[in-house]
Structures are given as structure tokens and as C-alpha cells.
Amino acid sequence: MNGISFDYITEYLNTLIEEDDEGILEMEQYANENNVPIVQKEVANLLKLMITIQKPMRILELGTAIGYSSILMSRSSKFVKEIVTIERNENMAEIARNNMSKFDENKIISIIEGDCLKVLEKLEDKYDMIFIDAGKGHYNEFFPHCLRLLKDSGVIISDNVLFRGMVANNDLLIRRKITIVKRMRTYLMNISKDKNLITTVLPVGDGVAITARRN
Ligand code: SAH
Ligand code: MG
């Protein structure tokens, strides 16, 4: 049990997802060997589906790591023209740049190195899709900026919102994660109760929230 879904369900669902892109598989292997927390298979597939439906031209990502999800998104639809991704860890950014030189053939991804909050404060152009996948304790601070940077028809996707189930169940909660978990609960409450927004929280991967403006 990952605290979120029964193992047999996750295992079964994963048998339905087939990734045959060599580059993506190579990065998956690297991430597994080096404990880099890339999106799980089911979340990767959800991102691809969302991009196929939404056809975003411009995507903003918080948390690049080795560039796995941004490269995956760049390959999901021909409509994607630009991806900006933010990463504060120099080593990660360097690995991501290498991966991008190999796997981002159309050169649509750019990395901004720095802390998400500092970078977000300076961004002005709007995006069709924003993927929040960095600094689990800081989604509440990132979110107002993400809303400001989101086109009216845009979608915000937040990863790891159930955090190994701890967000939903105190029995799973470990002491050193209490602050993060409390903040995540506040985050989910806020994006769920906001009358101007519609949010669904899915028990997929480590928990994914999808948010749009009501229209
Ligand atoms: N989206 C990636 C995984 C990102 S893992 C993928 O699925 O392939 C989260 C990354 O966010 C880590 O590399 C970490 O260094 C970075 N990070 C964490 N907090 C951050 C912050 N406040 N600003 C910028 N990057 C941050
Ligand atoms: Mg994640």
C-alpha cells in the first residue's frame, strides 16, 4: 500500500500503460537508480491525457528535477510550443539541461534556475497549463501566483497532494512531516472551497489535484 490506492489496483492500471519512448524510459531508469522523485507512471499518463484534451500552447512547471516530466509534456502534443520549468537545485538543473539537449528536439523547454516563489514573483506572461511539483510545503504561497499567471481557460495540476496518504489519515502521519501535511490540507481545502474555482482531487500516484476557473 502506498497509502493512497491498493497495490493491486496500481499494479493493474500500470499494465495498461505502455511507454515505448526510449528517451523517456532512459530517464525513468536514471530516476529510479538515483532516487529522483519523478511523476509516477499513472501521473505521467494523466498529464499526457490532460495535454491532449487541453492542447496547451504554453506550460509552466514548478520543479524540473532531471527534466523528465517537462520532456514528457513536450512530447505529448504538437500544440505545445513552450515550456518554462523552474528548479532551484543546480545539480538537477544541470542534469535536466543535458537531458533536454538529448530529448527536447524542438527546443521548446527552458529552465529558470532559482526558488519557485522568487521566480514566480517576476513572471508576467500567462500560461495555459501550470504543473506544480516542487516544494510540497509551499503550494499555498505558489498558488496565488499560479492563478495570476493562468489564462482564463487554463488548468493547474498539483502533484503529491495526498503525500503517501498522510494528508487524508493521521494514522499514516509521521512526525517530521506534520507541517507539510497541515499545509497541504489547507491547500486542498482552499482550492476545493473557492467558489471561483472547480477542483478535483484524484487518488492517482501520490495524489493529484486538477483545478480550473469556473465559467
Ligand atoms: N517534475 C519532476 C519532478 C520534480 S521533483 C518530474 O516529475 O520529472 C521536485 C523538484 O523541485 C526537485 O528537483 C527540487 O529540487 C525542486 N524544488 C523543491 N522546492 C523548490 C523550490 N522552492 N523552488 C524551486 N525548486 C524546488
Ligand atoms: Mg511529484
Q: Keywords, please?
A:
Rossmann fold, seven-stranded mixed β-sheet, alpha/beta
Could you give a short account of the major beta sheet?
7 strands, mixed
Q: H/E element string?
A: HHHEHEHEHEHEHEE
**Global shape:** globular
Helix content percent band: 40-55%
Distinct small molecules: S-adenosyl-L-homocysteine, magnesium ion
> CATH homologous superfamily, by name?
Vaccinia Virus protein VP39
| Average predicted confidence as pLDDT | 97
Distance between the termini: 38 Å
| Helical run tally | 8
The CATH architecture classification is 3-Layer(aba) Sandwich
The radius of gyration computed from the alpha-carbon positions, rounded to a whole number of angstroms, is 16 Å
What are the segments in which pLDDT stays under 50 over at least 5 consecutive residues?
none
How many strand units? 7
CATH class: Alpha Beta
Q: What is the domain total for the residues?
A: 1
Strand order of the largest sheet: 3-2-1-4-5-7-6
Please write out the topology:
Blueprint: H1 7-16, H2 22-33, H3 41-54, E1 58-62, H4 68-74, E2 82-87, H5 90-103, E3 109-113, H6 116-122, E4 127-132, H7 139-148, E5 150-159, H8 178-193, E6 197-202, E7 208-213
Helix pairs in contact: 6-7
Bound molecules: S-adenosyl-L-homocysteine and magnesium ion (MG).
Mind explaining what this structure looks like?
This protein has helices spanning 7-16, 22-33, 41-54, 68-74, 90-103, 116-122, 139-148, 178-193, and strands at residues 58-62, 82-87, 109-113, 127-132, 150-159, 197-202, 208-213. A seven-stranded mixed β-sheet has the order 3-2-1-4-5-7-6, sandwiched between helices. 42% of the residues lie in helices and 20% in strands. The protein is globular and about 45 Å long. The protein has one domain (7-213): 3-Layer(aba) Sandwich (Rossmann fold). By secondary structure, the chain is α/β, with parallel strands linked by helices. Helix 6 runs parallel beside helix 7. The chain has eight helices and seven strands. The chain starts with 6 loop residues before the first helix and ends with a strand. Bound molecules: S-adenosyl-L-homocysteine (SAH) and magnesium ion (MG). S-adenosyl-L-homocysteine is lined by residues 37-39, 63, 65, 68-69, 86-89, 92, 115-116, 133-135, 138.
